[in-house]
Amino acid sequence: MELWYTEKQTENHGITTKITETLHSEKSEFQQIDIIQTKQFGRMLVLDGMVMTTDVDEFVYHEMIAHVALNTHPNPKKVLVVGGGDGGAIREIVKHESVEQAVLAEIDGRVIEACKTHFPNIAKELSGNPRVSVQVMDGVKHIHENKGAYDVIMVDSTEPVGPAVGLFEKGFYQGIYDALKPDGIMVAQTESPWFNRDLIKRVFRDLKSIFPITRLYTVSIPTYPSGLWSFTIASKQYDPLEVDPDTIKDLDTKYYSPELHHAVFKLPKFVQELTRD
Question: Which has the closest alpha carbon to 145: 206, 74, 80, 65?
């Protein structure tokens, strides 16, 4: 008998993939955590029925949430990841020699532990790296307790349901602004331009009302709804479009590159429209 997993991505659309076994399944205090073995994408992390990451395509998301902002800031020393319990963003952050401390604020410690066991390549920097601080706590609370502390803050959240709802609200973004240093930068995953247009428009508008520089960029992630995914970067001082590609060092990446740094901001017209008032 063939086994298939289907994520219902909208009321009218889903993605399905053949699986061989369930490696881990538990109900944590915050969400349902499942790790399944798929034929096409290797191991897959699913939270509350939504695909979060896979062995095969994880590098796209983790590289692109991290390196655009970190290469826009001229000297990032202290970096925060809100969410991101799989550890992939942290893995990419510590590739930057200037970073002295990378802090993970993840509300669900069970996600961290499950990923350490089943995704060792993604979570490899969560244990034993003196530059990494793992804090199992509410990221919103951490933001409000650390005013002016960070050079870069990354919001590596699940979809805007359940424990992640507050990570898409204007008050949270204002809290991030306050937690950043005077020349700080933030970046957040902001869902699919095909299925989440209203959310992208609202987030972009909210960030633009707080930060002087706000940009939207897109990447290709096959296991995410529609395959086209967006990130929104907001900066107090530095513009990602003004970065000289010749200054970007080789960071042993698979997706991100100096040439791509600028290219991802070239948006299709229907996506450009989401950034206009």
Answer: 80
Q: Which of 217, 201, 208, 221 is nearest to 262 (CA)?
A: 217
Q: Of 48, 16, 20, which is closest to residue 34 (Cα–Cα)?
A: 48
Output the CA–CA distances (angstroms, integers) from residue 198 to 10, 192, 195, 201, 275, in the order listed. 14, 10, 9, 5, 11
Q: Measure the CA–CA gap between 198 and 209, rounded to whole angstroms.
A: 17
Q: Which CATH architecture has domain 3-53?
A: Roll (2.30)
User: 58-275: which CATH architecture?
Assistant: 3-Layer(aba) Sandwich (3.40)
- Amino acid letter at 181? K
134 half-sphere exposure, CB direction, 13 A CA radius: 23
Domains of the chain by residue range? 3-53, 58-275
Active site residues: 156
Mean pLDDT per segment of 10 residues, for the chain of length 277 residues? 91 93 97 97 96 98 98 98 97 98 97 98 97 96 96 83 60 95 97 94 96 98 96 98 94 96 98 94
Whether pTM exceeds 0.85:
yes
- pLDDT for 160 equals 52
Contact 251, 66 (CB under 8 A): no
CA 72, distance to chain mean position in Å, is 17
